[in-house]
Write a structure and sequence with these properties.
- This protein is α/β, with parallel strands linked by helices.
- The strands form three sheets. Strands 11-10-9-8-7-6-13-12 form an eight-stranded parallel beta sheet.
- It contains 15 helices and 13 strands.
- The chain starts with 31 loop residues before the first helix and ends in a 6-residue tail after the last helix.
- It has two domains: 85 residues, 2-Layer Sandwich (Ribosomal Protein S8, Chain: A, domain 1), CATH 3.30.1370; 274 residues, Dihydropteroate synthase-like (TIM Barrel, Alpha-Beta Barrel).
Length: 423
């Protein structure tokens, strides 16, 4: 009899464990793209890859406010497709109950469920449409962001937006780059460190800050943009809510408008973006910079932000802004508690499923200080970690102060994620 230990491992003649090739090991959760690459490494037939990859990636969707009849029908269709729906137990017997649910299954199983429920009643056609949109958008590549006749290539990995604050009261740098010379020098330094976009701002939007009038904001940013445009081809973003400032910045050579109000603060902003063919970042903010951190509360922070961004992007599209020009930003730190911010980062793929390039700004924000105890200048490590997490989970652009450090971290993680399958 071959000697074995308590776990069934074969031992040698002298009782030593034999060195054998491990035949089974666990893979990390893989995306459809990664699974397809693994199949190719095994020389699986291309047609088989197309079929099996949809059956191999697993997803969980939160479905909100299902009536009892809708929940029971969805449960039946999920089970029939080989998936699962978890609901509150009371909806099984209470016809007037309402529940949230978790739908879990593969890409292919969700496709089947969508087909089955789109002709049902009790609001299920709307659920089908949202599921179909989410699962489709997860796999639509965002190859580029269009702006003023040019494109920012997003297919080669997450891009870095370097922050240039031309303000006397920024929370992160305390006015260090308030002069034109200092701001231009800092912008060029960020370009040399690897920034893919420069974001120029002339109004602090830190919690509790007061608005700056358009004339003063233009006085701060326009000379900086003009001089940077003469020295670099790096795309330039203007961080403003005001159409007058955006127009002046675009006239001076800016390419993208980064609007923390998602085009709601100034009714003329949409027209400016459309006429110039600019790129536009549409961010979620609860309240205003002056009031946003006064006990912010949500029914469901993820669902509320998604609803807002979907409504704002729909409005922009209806008013003539091209889809390829739009970026969405969940607005970490803008009317959110630390717990809200962590939830947003945890559920990055929910925002990815909106179908637009995703920008995330976490750099040196107060929630990192509350998590780590670090002051503003000591939050670089936490900022890089949060930016890398965001990029690894779907962010196309990360807005940062520490460009060099972030670039090195992103390159390292990108190589890990793109490592060729060797199994």
């Amino acid at each position: 009899m071959v000697p074995r230990d308590a776990y069934g491992n074969q031992r040698g003649m002298e009782g030593q464990k034999s060195v054998e090739m491990k035949r089974v090991y666990l893979l990390n959760p893989l995306s459809v793209k990664e699974i397809s690459a693994c199949f190719r490494s095994l020389s699986v037939h291309p047609e088989g890859i197309g079929i099996m990859s949809k059956k191999s990636a697993f997803y969980t969707f939160r479905v909100r406010s299902l009536s009892s009849p809708a929940a029971n029908i969805l449960k039946q269709e999920a089970l029939a497709a080989g998936a699962e729906l978890a609901t509150a137990w009371r909806v099984i017997k209470a016809a007037d109950a309402e529940t949230d649910a978790l739908l879990t299954g593969t890409y292919r199983q969700v496709e089947i469920i969508v087909q089955k429920i789109r002709s049902q009643q009790f609001g299920l056609p709307c659920i089908a449409a949202e599921l179909e949109s989410a699962i489709r958008n997860l796999f639509i590549p965002r190859p580029y962001l269009e702006y003023r006749g040019s494109r920012l290539d997003l297919a080669t990995g997450p891009k870095i937006m370097g922050i240039v604050n031309v303000t006397p009261d920024s929370f992160s740098d305390g006015g260090r780059f308030f002069s034109t010379d200092a701001a231009v020098g800092h912008g060029m330094e960020l370009c040399e460190q690897g920034a893919d976009v420069l974001d120029i701002g002339g109004e602090s939007t830190r919690p509790g800050s007061r608005p700056v009038d358009a004339a003063e904001e233009k006085r701060r940013v326009v000379p900086v943009i003009e001089r940077l445009r003469q020295r670099t081809n790096t795309p330039i973003s203007i961080d403003t809510r005001k159409s007058e400032v955006a127009k002046a910045a675009l006239d001076s050579g800016a390419d993208i408008v980064n609007d923390i109000s998602a085009l709601t603060y100034d009714s003329r902003m949409t027209g400016v973006v459309r006429r110039y063919g600019a790129g536009v970042v549409m961010m979620h903010m609860k309240g205003t910079p002056k009031t946003m951190q006064k006990a912010p509360a949500y029914d469901d922070v993820i669902a509320d932000i998604l609803s807002f961004l979907e409504q704002r992007t729909d409005d922009a599209l209806q008013k003539g802004i091209d889809r390829g020009h739009i970026v969405v930003d969940p607005g970490i730190g803008f009317g959110k508690t630390p717990e809200h911010n962590l939830s947003i980062l945890k559920h990055m793929k929910a925002f990815r499923a909106l179908g637009f390039p995703l920008l995330v700004g976490v750099s040196r924000k107060s929630f990192i200080g509350k998590l780590t105890g670090a002051g503003v200048e000591g939050r670089s490590y936490g900022s890089v970690a949060a930016a890398v997490w965001a990029a690894a989970n779907g962010a196309d652009i990360v807005r940062v102060h520490d460009v060099k450090e972030t670039r090195q971290a992103l390159l390292t993680v990108r190589h890990i994620m793109d490592a060729r399958c060797t199994y």
